[in-house]
Each structure stands twice: as C-alpha cells, then as structure tokens.
Amino acid sequence: xxxxxxxxxxxxxxxxxxxxxxxxxxxxxxxxxxxxxxxxxxxxxxxxxxxxxxxxxxxxxxxxxxxxxxxxxxxxxxxxxxxxxxxxxxxxxxxxxxxxxx
Amino acid sequence: xxxxxxxxxxxxxxxxxxxxxxxxxxxxxxxxxxxxxxxxxxxxxxxxxxxxxxxxxxxxxxxxxxxxxxxxxxxxxxxxxxxxxxxxxxxxxxxxxxxxxxxxxxxxxxxxxxxxxxxxxxxxxxxxxxxxxxxxxxxxxxxxxxxxxxxxxxxxxxx
Lengths: 102, 159
Known about the structure:
By secondary structure, chain A is of the alpha+beta class.
C-alpha cells in the first residue's frame, strides 16, 4: 500500500506517460517531493522557483482541497489518493489596459 | 515524430470561438478545446485536431476585461464531456478584447505544458485574428501553432 498520485494529462509527457504514481508518504509535501524527484521535468510546472506550489495547481486528498485542510502539511496514509487538478488562467494586457478599456 | 506545430479546426468551430468572444465582449470568454492529439503511423502525421468545444463561464468576476479563469471543477467537467465523446481536452481558448491575439506574460506565467492555447482578438466587438500557442518546456517562452481551418471534417460541437 502507498499513497496514489494522479497525474493530469498535460503533465504526463513529463512523467513518462504515466497517469498514476505511488509513493510512501506521510504528508502531501512528501508525496509531491517524491513525484518531483522521480520526474524531474515536472518540478518547474508544479512549483515556483521559490519552491512554492504554483497558484494554478490544485491538490486534493481523497477529494478534499488541501487549501481547506493543512495545505501541503496535510497528512496522508496508505490508500489515500492525491489528485492534481489544473485550473486555467490567462488574459490579455495589464491592469492599466483593463482600466483604459473598462 | 508528431507534428506539434499544426492545429486543425473546422470553420464551424472557429466561428463558434469567434462568436463566443463577441458574445462576452468587452469581457474575455473562455472554454475547453476537445479533440484528438496528433497521431503518427511512423510515416505520416495527422496533426492535433479540435473536434468540439466546451464553453465555460469566466470565473474572474473582479477583472473580466483582461483576465479569465477556469475553476478546477470546470476542468473536471470539461474532461468528463470529452471522455463521453471519446475525445480529450487538448487545450483552452479565450478572447483578448481590444488586444492582439498574442499571449501575454500573464498567459505564459499561468500556462500548463502540452495544452494548445487558442486566442481570438475581438476589437470593438468585432472578431479579428486567431492564434494558437503552446508553452515551451522551460516555461520561459511559447511556440506558435499554425491553425489550419478545414472544411468537410466531421464536427461534433457541444454548443
């Protein structure tokens, strides 16, 4: 038994095509750190240069958003599923442009 | 090798994206691109192809003129809609009201790899050029994809 991490489609090319990886981990941070260690190319897409989880990376443990739990310190146990779900964001121009066109 | 620089779309779906941008102007529209990734038999390559759209509500109520946001639940719903049609979410589209169809720094900073990002420019309520791009693996830049508008392809639009 281990903690299961579900890898979203856009990251699979950086995870040798895998959709699931399993690790021994006591927290979300530990599981994600194992994930980034096994698939080094994933790291920059999940974490900022300062090592923080990117704002558009959403992590759920057994369906619960870790933002409402203990963030990356959320404990995990054998049989848990960690789901990484993208949120999508973007837009044209900067804030000054937004005021100009509003 | 697969052709990662080309994206097929029917005129009908291209028109639907433009129409969505006009409908939400002066706010940004957004939605998912459903389709199939490029496939290669070793000799010939069939480019990535958009076969359906899944229009979404822009969740950025605070700054919808120049920002869009798709919530994780919307991403899951788009995935389900794609799977129901034996397709996958191959990317996302959004509009740039009164801005060119070029990815902004904000677009790049928030982009995921692999996905195609289609942008339609809407100037004073009138749709203009459409472009597509993908984030480079180093996250420092992006590569353009050539949008090839095809007629006569089988189209399954969700809108």
